[in-house]
Specification:
The complex is a heterotrimer. Chain A is mostly helical. In chain A, α1 runs antiparallel to α12, α4 packs antiparallel against α5 and α8 runs antiparallel to α9. Chain B is an alpha+beta fold. Chain B has 17 helices and 19 strands. In chain B, the strands form 5 sheets. In chain B, strands 11, 12, 13, 14, 15, 16 and 17 form a 7-stranded mixed β-sheet that branches. By secondary structure, chain C is mostly helical.
Chain lengths: 308, 531, 323
């Protein structure tokens, strides 16, 4: 197990280099002048541009620029933006909001998804089952910006039930609606996964055995069926948390949430390579670590899986 | 996700006339200890006046610093602020400036003449890379100081005479220099700035009505009233919170929901169908901005040589319909080359050539013999798509020519091409007056070889007319001559006038005495707040 | 099995989660008697599919969409490019079933013609993803070792990039001044494929690894079959079923991705008619002219729904466990 973890962690190293370089290269290639929007429509004086270019090593060849950046990065220095702000600090400020949003979204999809999946899986067939099935398909087909808009306009504007935008401190109450928009897709997945998993396990030998030896139906469902059915769901939720923590550019934009997605979107707009590379690196590492955790979790939950 | 607001030109726009936004009740003194939140964007540079030229940063810096002069929010006239007097000498070549005594920076140090001189020197010095340097380019010695690897740290033209007096010598006579002094770039900087610029960036120290409290990047900037402020424009409330939004739409929803007190622009979600008037009943205003939009022809391109073609296109565009349907009347058709409420403006200088008449347009087109496709180009990130598409549809439907919008990703890229005269398509040109005179609209844009003459228009008779107007003894007669010159443009049509802008604003029920300054910002000195 | 399959299982599960299982799987299974010889997986699946109502609905919808793509003239005689500003934002009426947009285009005609760009982008992106990812996965799974390690790490780089974020970065980087429609589509298709191929790769890779260890493959190799032959004869057919399932779902998802990216203003260029571009155009008018949003959004959702439903039933038909 330890050897496995070490190997997986070692595998992250080339991925880390690959990602940082790829993003660095792409942002470096972005067309246009990063100083275009910085001095109004008059444009910036040449001396200003020259100073800034020197400050951000922009006249070096791409590889040298990249290694200079990397050298600082491994020391934990994410660099400063063109506005002279620390990228690390900005990320530290934005990330908790994104994590908060991700966790709320996860809770929503887990609670509703598992409940709906369990209900339909156990009952099986019938009108409600079909209704859930169709509505999950519908949720999957709905782009998130449509869901977000509808929630904001109907519940925020027309009915005034929810906050239309999220204040910078991002209180939990105001995050519920955006989290719902964000979670709707995965909620549909969780429902279907739970349902499928329950149906599969219902026919499994151990359930038949349990029934055959006369256990009460409640006990069969509660102890045997649910515990085993929930394994794939939990691992899915784990992977999804990794994806959710990658920020939600669209949702954060609609609800004005100052999360990591918002930060990186702005940075792309202003061609602020340091911020983009810093944020994306963080996101990719978090995502891959989450994947590793999920794999380990899987092994812990399912005794049939062992890692060498 | 919404467009991030295209940073507006903060060129030297001076005293134009104004239309005041609807004023509040006026008698309510309000609560002097409360807080106002206003819409803003993320400043693009550290909050140092000499490095701030774009709109978002200027909004914050302007409330923290007070320069020698200020622009009157209502008349746009330049008036003395920190300046006691400005003496003009040697035929506008030397300006002798005396400043008021007893003004203090927020850190308690007194504002002296050297604080101005040092600040301007710092801004002009090339290696400091300050974005506002070009505002000082008329000062003697600028070229030497501003060179990329310059070692000349001080402008030759700046001399400290005493603690409260200094002189500015220009490279050549420059009569309108005092008009520029209200720009944030010309603000003084405290001694502590020069000791540690980094610390200053983290906590800027100004001499204006508000002092810096805190800043959360990409979220907000908090300011509070500076009680020892000496200027006349003291605010009637305590705290100012400049909130940064990721999109105007998000800010607008907050404004309607009462989470934001003031917004100096209304996004299209609110403008369309005049929704903002019902969303914000009695809490909205509209002013004419001295900003005009024109469509320029690259006259250096053989294909666009014929004035008949250019007139045909002008007559094929249904301006009132586009301003109504696309802009929801936030733009007003323009039938001349000068912005409204500018000295020397007269209506309908373009005359018949701007009158919508598809049949006549078609005839003119046939006369010109033009065949092929019309393309209209500008920056793709400025939200110009819809009106260009509408103009194109007019050209398609009325002239039978194929027409397309060719966006260039950013404004800087398209500007570079325009300057280099490499355009192969028609292009948009927006213009704000540097100073409120017809002369500025004509000379800068249409005189042979002028700095912003991107169409390449050249007409000796026009140039001569401008010179003639320059010699006139008074403004009225000069304007008359300039108007004759404007008529000549109408005859040649190197550019097509389209429309001028209006700016809308909205505010929360908490605010009274709301006045929108001409540069489309809340006048912080008059507004009062309850609750 | 030692290591990396788990990660791939997670991803495959992700896809499985999309489709789950339909209630009709619970329906009593009638084993047809008339079939004498054992049928193949495919004909079995086909037999099964034909009797599912969901399959029929999905196929009918898809056929309709394809018809719109191929001969939009059948549905409307109005020119989708002709605009008359005078009728700007007019509501649906007998003349124009879906009303007019801001520029005064006929919305019905435009919505129909928009299917073309949307569906073509979806189809091409799926094709690229499946081909690139499938080939990469097969080679990786078959040869294993260093090659597998290197390719898997490369895939991880793209896999870890959040989809929308990666899409924005790649699209803004490769944006040209004034792309033709074909160029813009190609860049968009390339971007989607670049961000999605690792998923396809993981699916085929784990299938390839499983197949490689089967006795009949070992036998074939012992008999001297070449690598190429083993890949084509044994691995390819075994990877086809999961790929089919993935492809149908991905197709729906990619049509949605085009809409999302165009909605953000970086997908297809303005002036193109696609559902995403139309929704992007509509978003500023959502309160005055909601029909501008509703119709393209409804067509988009229905089309995606049709493909996802198809993927759903195809998966059930192909998965012996659920039969």
């Amino acid at each position: 197990m330890v050897r496995y973890i070490i190997r997986r962690l070692l595998q992250l190293i080339p991925v880390f280099f690959g990602t940082t370089f790829l993003i660095y290269y792409l942002v470096w290639r972005l067309p246009g002048d990063p100083f275009a929007a910085m001095c109004g429509d008059r444009g910036c004086p040449p001396a200003y541009v020259a100073t800034m270019r020197a400050k951000f090593n922009m006249d070096d060849p791409i590889l040298i620029q990249y290694f200079k950046y990397l050298g600082k990065l491994v020391q934990g220095d994410f660099g400063t933006t063109y506005q002279g702000l620390s990228v690390g600090k900005q990320m530290a400020m934005a990330y908790p909001t994104t994590v908060k949003l991700a966790v709320i979204a996860l809770l929503i999809e887990a609670l509703i998804g598992i409940a709906a999946g369990m209900y339909t899986g156990l009952k099986g067939g019938g009108f409600l089952d079909n209704l859930v099935l169709i509505s999950t398909l519908f949720l999957i087909s709905l782009p998130v910006f449509v869901t977000g808009f509808v929630l904001q306009i109907v519940f925020g504007f027309q009915l005034g039930i929810i906050d239309v935008t999220v204040p910078p401190s991002a209180p939990i109450g105001s995050l519920i609606a955006p989290a719902f928009a964000l979670a709707s897709l995965s909620m549909a997945y969780v429902t279907r996964l739970t349902r499928a998993s329950i149906l599969e396990n219902k026919r499994a030998d151990y359930v038949r055995t349990a029934v055959a030896k006369g256990l009460k139906p409640n006990r069969v469902v509660g102890v045997h069926l649910l515990r085993n059915s929930v394994i794939p769901v939990l691992t899915f939720l784990g992977t999804d948390l990794g994806a959710l923590m990658g920020g939600a550019i669209v949702t954060e934009g609609i609800f004005n949430i100052k999360g990591i997605g918002n930060l990186v979107y702005r940075a792309i707009f202003f061609k602020e390579s340091v911020t983009v590379v810093g944020v994306v690196t963080l996101l990719v590492v978090v995502y891959l670590l989450m994947n590793l955790l999920v794999d380990l979790l899987y092994a812990v939950l399912d005794p049939r899986i062992r890692y060498e | 996700m919404g467009k991030i607001r295209k940073v507006a030109v903060v060129a030297a726009a001076l005293s134009a006339a104004l239309v005041m936004a609807g004023c509040g009740s006026g008698t309510d003194a309000g609560n002097a200890e409360s807080k106002i939140s206003i819409w803003g964007g993320e400043p693009q540079n550290p909050l140092v006046p000499g490095n701030t030229t774009e709109a978002y940063g200027s909004k914050v810096v302007r409330s923290m610093f007070t320069g020698l002069t200020q622009y009157d929010p209502a008349t746009y006239k330049s008036k003395d602020a920190m300046a006691e007097k400005i003496d003009i000498k040697e035929g506008s070549k030397v300006f002798d400036i005396t400043i008021k005594k007893g003004w203090k920076f927020h850190d308690g140090t007194e504002v002296k003449a050297k604080n101005f001189v040092d600040a301007w020197n710092y801004t002009a010095f090339g290696p400091n890379g300050q974005g506002g340097a070009s505002f000082l380019q008329a000062v003697d010695g600028y070229d030497a100081t501003n060179a990329k690897d310059s070692t000349v740290k001080e402008l030759k033209g700046l001399k400290v005479v005493s603690d409260y007096e200094f002189t500015v010598t220009m490279a050549k006579p420059f009569a309108i220099f005092p008009q520029f002094l209200g720009y944030v770039t010309f603000s003084p900087l405290p001694d502590s700035f020069f000791k540690d610029p980094k610390a200053f960036e983290a906590k800027p120290i100004g001499n204006g009505p508000f002092k810096f409290v805190s800043r959360v990047p990409n979220a907000n900037i908090e300011l509070t009233r500076y009680d020892e402020y000496q200027g006349a424009d003291k605010p009637h409330f305590k705290d100012l919170d400049v909130k940064v939004y990721s999109s105007q739409e998000a800010a607008y929803t907050d404004l309607v929901a009462g989470n934001l007190d003031y917004m100096d622009t209304i996004p299209s979600t609110g403008l369309n169908g005049d929704k903002y008037k019902t969303d914000l009943p009695d809490r909205n205003g509209e002013i004419n901005s001295p900003i005009i939009q024109t469509l320029q022809f690259p006259t250096y391109d053989e294909r666009y040589k014929s004035p008949d073609l250019r007139k045909a296109i002008s007559k094929a565009i249904n301006r009132p319909q586009i301003t109504e349907k696309i802009f929801n009347n936030a733009r007003v058709p323009l039938y001349g080359w000068v912005g409204p409420s500018i000295s020397g403006y007269t209506d309908n200088q373009c005359g018949d050539n701007c009158k919508y008449d598809p049949a006549a347009a078609k005839q003119l087109l046939e006369k010109s013999g033009f065949k092929g496709k019309i393309e209209i180009s500008t920056n793709g990130d400025g939200g110009h798509g819809p009106w260009i598409e509408a103009v194109c549809n007019d050209i398609k439907n009325n002239l039978g020519l194929d027409c397309a919008f060719v966006p260039v990703p950013t404004f800087s890229e398209v500007l570079a091409k325009e300057k280099a005269k490499q355009m192969t398509a028609l292009f948009r040109q927006g213009w704000i007056a540097d100073y409120p005179s017809i002369e500025n609209f004509l000379r800068q844009l249409y005189e042979t070889g002028a700095g912003n003459n991107y169409s390449g228009y050249s007409n000796p008779a026009f140039d001569a007319k401008l010179k003639e107007a320059d010699q006139k003894p008074n403004e009225t007669e000069a304007n008359k001559a300039y108007q004759e010159a404007e008529k000549m443009i109408a005859n040649d049509m190197p550019s097509i006038p389209l429309w001028f802008q209006k700016t809308q604003s909205g505010w929360s029920p908490r605010l009274s005495n709301v006045r929108t300054a001409l540069w489309a910002e809340l006048d912080l000195s008059t507004v009062t707040v309850t609750g | 099995m030692s290591e990396p399959t788990i990660a791939s299982q997670v991803e495959v599960r992700h896809v499985e989660a999309i489709v789950g299982e339909s209630p009709s799987a619970e329906a009593p299974q009638q084993k047809p008697d008339k079939a004498d010889k054992p049928r193949s997986l495919w004909s079995d699946a086909w037999y099964d599919l034909r009797r599912r109502p969901l399959f029929i609905v999905a196929s009918a919808l898809i056929a309709l969409v394809l018809l719109m793509v191929l001969v939009p003239q059948l549905f409307t005689s109005a020119d989708p490019y002709y605009a008359d500003l005078a009728r700007s934002k007019q509501l649906p009426s007998a003349n124009a079933w879906f009303g007019y947009d801001v520029q005064g285009h006929d919305m019905f005609s435009r919505t129909i013609y928009a299917s073309r760009a949307s569906v073509i982008v979806g189809l091409l992106a799926t094709l690229f993803t499946v081909l690139v990812g499938g080939a990469a996965g097969m080679i990786s799974g078959f040869y294993g070792g260093l090659l597998d390690a290197v390719m898997s790490r490369i895939a991880d780089v793209f896999f870890g990039l959040p989809f929308i974020l990666g899409g924005i970065i790649i699209l803004t980087t490769f944006r040209s001044d004034s792309p033709t429609l074909a160029e813009a589509m190609l860049v968009l298709v390339g971007t989607i494929a670049m961000l999605s191929w690792p998923v396809a790769m993981r699916i085929t890779r784990s299938a390839a690894i499983t197949v490689k260890q089967q006795d009949y493959v070992k036998a074939a190799r012992a008999l001297g079959a070449s690598d190429g032959r083993i890949i084509v004869r044994h691995m390819l057919p075994n990877c086809l079923a999961p790929m089919m399932v993935y492809a149908t779902i991905a197709l729906g998802a990619f049509i949605g991705a085009e809409a999302t990216l165009s909605y953000l203003g970086i997908g297809l260029p303005p002036g193109t008619i696609s559902w995403g571009v139309m929704i992007n155009d509509a978003k500023d008018y959502i309160r005055v002219a909601p029909h501008m949003l509703i119709f393209p959004a409804a067509f988009l959702t229905t089309t995606v729904l049709a493909f996802v439903m198809l993927g759903d039933v195809v998966r059930q038909a192909l998965d012996p466990k659920l039969r």
